[in-house]
Amino acid sequence: MKTNISFFVLAMAFIFTACKTVQIEKPKESYLPSDISPVVSELPLQLELNVKKLEAAINNKMTGLLFEGNNISSKDLSVKVWKAQNFTFTVSNNVIEYKIPLKVWSRFAWRVEKFGLAVGDYYEAAGTIMLNYKTSVNIDKNWKIVTKTTASGYSWIETPKLNIVGVAVPVTPIANYALNRFDQIINDQIDNTLAQSVDLKKYVSQTWSEVQKPRLVSPENNLWVRITPKDIYMSPFTTAGTKLNMAVALNAQIESFVGVQPKANNPVQLPELKIMNRLPQQFNLNLAADVTLEKISQMASEELKNRTFTEGKKSVTITGISIFGSEGKAVFVADLTGSFKGRIYFKGNMTY
User: Fold this and answer.
1) Residue 171 in 3-state DSSP?
2) Phi, psi for 125 (deg, rounded to 5)
3) Alpha helices of 268-349 — where are they, by DSSP H?
């Protein structure tokens, strides 16, 4: 805050032309409660899920023989499945799509009856199949990541074949078995990996609690900021390259205090998640500023104490300055020496 020096000069000139000594009555000291509350501000938080890291984590966990089964569908069919190549992931909004290449070995029974005679044997065949899946990622009201995985078909990279006339490899039961078995396996892996890598509630809770602590932002001015969160919202997921972005907006009241550390408000508990159908604004801040009278007195004293003001042949020097409140206005108290000795009062409204 800067003091208007010309105001002091005019006041001094008036005093000089009047008399050298006066007795000025001190305004009554009083204070009015503030009815000003800060407008809610919107603070954006950006969270992201790197799908390539999710892909790498699942590829590292799933190696070798993945599953096997015997007597599938009450038939004499056995299947073993290995990982053929690394799984590949892509992302679009809140949907992760991935391809699962698997090496499949099967053993099945072949039997033919003719002319009252039964002929049969066991055969083995191996091939490579590509399974396709989609996982939708959402957040429930308790800040828990919720996924839903669905199969979206398969294709044979290398179809199992036999060089035996009249013997057909049961490729459809093999593919269906692989799809059905892998549904739960990949769903569990996605859920577990996401839970380990993105503990959303923990992160949001820590941020929510941390922002409520008053913070010193300018030691030289003893300037503090206190944030009181009100609500928290999440926007629909967006995609940037291989990253799934989660935009969170924190609605809060922001207050600044100069000269004194404010008391922390009673802790506000993390509310349930709310969804908004737009992206957060970029730091929409509405700031309420409180400055103690003691701090204003200090700032005014640093600027004006021992300053000398001259008008013609007369001059005064400010030896002390302070401030107090009176009926909603600010009263500056100036102690003077020189051509005029005594104490004068300036009363008015302070503005930026």
Assistant:
1) helix
2) -150, 145
3) 293-304
Q: What angle do CA 264, 351, 343 make, to 5 degrees?
A: 100
DSSP string, 53-111: HHHHHHHHH--SEEEEESSGGGSSEEEEEEE-S--EEEEETTEEEEEEEEEEEEEEEEE
φ, ψ for residue 170, nearest 5 deg:
-80, 75
d(CA 320, CA 326): 19
In 140-214, DSSP assigns E strands to 145-158
Cα–Cα distance for residue pair 281/216, rounded to 1 Å: 25
Structure tokens at 11: 């006041």
The tens digit of pLDDT for each residue in 9-66 reads 444 444 444 445 556 778 888 766 666 666 788 888 888 888 898 899 899 988 889 8
Residue 256: phi and psi, rounded to 5, are -115, 145
Q: What is the DSSP letter of 176?
A: H
* Inter-residue contact 318 to 335 (CB < 8 Å): yes
State how far the alpha carbon of 195 is from the alpha carbons of 149, 189, 214, 244, in Å: 15, 10, 32, 15
- CA neighbor of 242 nearest in space, from 52, 47, 46, 48: 52
Burial class (CB in 10 A: 0-12, 13-18, 19+), 300: buried
CB 228 within 8 A of CB 181: no
Residues of the chain by 3-state class (helix, strand, coil), percent to 5: 25, 45, 30
